[in-house]
Amino acid sequence: MRRPDGVRPGGRGPDEVRSDGLRPDGFRSGGLSPDGFRSGGLSPDGFRPVRRVNAYEQIVAQVEEQVRTGELSPGDRLPSERRLMSSFEVSRSTVREAMRVMTATGLVESRPGDPRGPVVLDFSPQALRAPLERMVHQGASRVELLQFRLVIDGQAALMAAVRADSAAIDGIEDAARAIREQSQSAEISPAGFAAIIRTFHQRVRDAAHNRLIQVCGEAVTDALGVIMGQRLQGLSDPERRARVGRSADDAARLVGLIRSGDGAASQRCATANIYRYYRDSLEPAERELLEGMVEDPGA
């Protein structure tokens, strides 16, 4: 007969330990259960059991920690789904949610039907794209986006001047020439102009040979794309043509500086060009925050 607490008279509570070192639930006190897993400690795989509601997040955090410390390396495989369920002491749905998150962020690759565990992937800047784009679209102010762009594209221009080969510079020059052609076309399309400008800046970033700059630059350019197009909306044809013509002049000057190998001048030119394009649409307080990043904001 059991007491109200579920323990037989003369028996042991759930946390009491028998003389052989096992608790009534089959786990050793501070040791291993019969299947080899530590109660409240680490499994043989080096993971800790997860008990909170947001269990999948803790699974992700533990895998990320093992990657950071080198316990898991690119090409290594995680244990099978069943083994992970046992290691973390969670349900199948929790493990699958953790796998979904880690797959989406580029941490692991899991193939349906593969009996082996998910494989740990090498780092790729592409893994930054989704969270970065979410941040710049949902949480960053206009001035923060422009500050970030001045940093990214200014440094990209400097690095392009130092590191780009002649083929990469020729590609930048081709993009600059397309801006000039747009300024001279019979009709200037805001969407078309935005696409051409995007190509120009992306080629400068590509010439910097830095994948982080490429990914971050693309994300912030996407976020500013609407503002860029709006700069041409509501203008008369002569005004629109003059603005695009100024952008063509700016691009041509930057190409010349990059080709000359003058990194510092290329950086100054790039940041001044970007600031000048958006300046008229900014509030005075926004201009004040940005002008300190531009050597000649009034140019």
> Uncertain runs with pLDDT below 50, 5 residues or more?
1-39
The tally of domains stands at 2
Computed Rg: 29 Å
What portion of residues belong to β-strands? under 5%
- Helical residue percent band: 55-70%
* CATH classification class of the largest domain: Mainly Alpha
SSE order, one letter for each helix or strand: HHHEEHHHHHHHH
Structural class: mainly alpha
CATH superfamily of the largest domain: GntR ligand-binding domain-like
Note the overall shape. Answer: elongated
CATH architecture of the largest domain: Up-down Bundle
Number of contiguous helices: 11
Number of strands: 2
**Which sequence of strands runs across the widest sheet?**
1-2
Q: What is the fold named in CATH at topology level of the largest domain?
A: Four Helix Bundle (Hemerythrin (Met), subunit A)
The major β-sheet equals: 2 strands, antiparallel
Mean of residue pLDDT? 81
Cα end-to-end separation: 91 Å
Q: What would a concise description of this structure say?
A:
Helix content is 58%, strand content 1%. It is built from eleven helices and two strands; from the N terminus they run αααββαααααααα.
Key phrases:
single chain, 299 residues, mainly alpha, Arc Repressor Mutant, subunit A, Four Helix Bundle (Hemerythrin (Met), subunit A), elongated, disordered N terminus
Account of the protein in words:
With 299 residues, the chain is mainly α. It folds into two domains: 103 residues, Arc Repressor Mutant, subunit A (Orthogonal Bundle); 164 residues, GntR ligand-binding domain-like (Four Helix Bundle (Hemerythrin (Met), subunit A), Up-down Bundle), CATH 1.20.120. The chain has eleven helices and two strands; from the N terminus they run αααββαααααααα. The protein has a two-stranded antiparallel sheet. α1 crosses α3, α5 crosses α7 and α5 packs antiparallel against α10. The longest helix is centred in the C-terminal third of the chain and has 24 residues. The N and C termini lie far apart (91 Å).
